[in-house]
Amino acid sequence: MTKTTWRILKLVTVAVVGTGAVLWFVMAAVPVHSHRVVRGPIATEVMGTGTLEARYHATISPKIAGLIAEVLVDQGSEVKQGQPLVRLIDEDLRQQVGIAEATVATAEAALLRIEADRTQMASILQQAKSEYERNRKLLQTDSISQSDFDKAKESLDIATSGVARAGASYAEAQQQIILTQRTLAFQQARLAEAQLLAPFDGLIIERFRDPGSIAVPGTPVLSMISKSELWISAWVDETEISRLGKSQPARIVFRSEPDKSYRGKVTRLGLQADRETREFTVDVQTLELPKNWAIGQRAEVYIETEKKEDAILVPMEYIIRRQGATGVFVVQDSFASWRPVNFRLMSTTHAEVVDGVSEGDELAIPRLGQTNLDAKRVVRK
User: Fold this and answer.
1) pTM given for the model
2) Answer CATH for 57-89+194-224 from 3.20.20.150, 3.40.50.150, 2.40.50.100, 2.20.130.10
């Protein structure tokens, strides 16, 4: 073999190897994730972040100062309206009530005595009037002396004055009874305030004091809520305000259970936006709750603003933007090709396609970080 022939053979071999390498590089299959386009329901949602709150909240605190004798409930206790929750030491108050009751009894007895005196004075007055009339007639016929008549008149005046004094004493005794009854009512109210009652049906969520502690007005002993209306007070961007309204359904996702949603609905829209964050509050009532929950617990709410039951759906992760356009890679005969698409409704997981792909089309996204699959042979992994 001549040198020239050898050189030609060598060049041909290099060319063949190079061409094979280029073809291998170009035609090598790219591993991808794939997905078949399907139809299904989709809903657009507005997201907000907030905390679980109770509409009705009460701090149980005494109106009078005293030592706590008993705390009858604890955190987690279900209570009914009017149920005793805390009892203060009340011996002194009971004594004050006893004294007030005795004072009322004394005043009532005095009133009975004065009533008897008044009845007696009325009888004396009636007798004096009769005696006076009799003596007046006798005086007209000169049957008695003037002095006897004057004595009868004096007796009538004394009896009249006595009835007036008895009436005044009776009125004073009645006022005294009213005063003592009000004093008794005041002492009874103070005694009642030594027992703290539940203001409504609810749940005790926090306990601050134990027996033996000093309780003073304004110092919390217990904290309770009503379970009748719990909601997520969520902050939502002000740009979404036109899309929201009362009674819209919502999903609630607690951070303690990020993979689970609980049902809710919008009950109230805030009327003032924060001037720094440009957000406003939306209260989403909880229609379901986790087994374990806590007031103040953080959660995300997803408020449904529009829904379509039958739409062509594309997972959000298969949507790719390039050169200012939005589209997907569609697989045909094991080759991927770029196809621009338009969307309408979008959720957190899917988008509704209005043109560009059809039900049953196969979509692909690369597994190994490659972004351009256009005209590439792909293999599903």
Assistant:
1) 0.67
2) 2.40.50.100
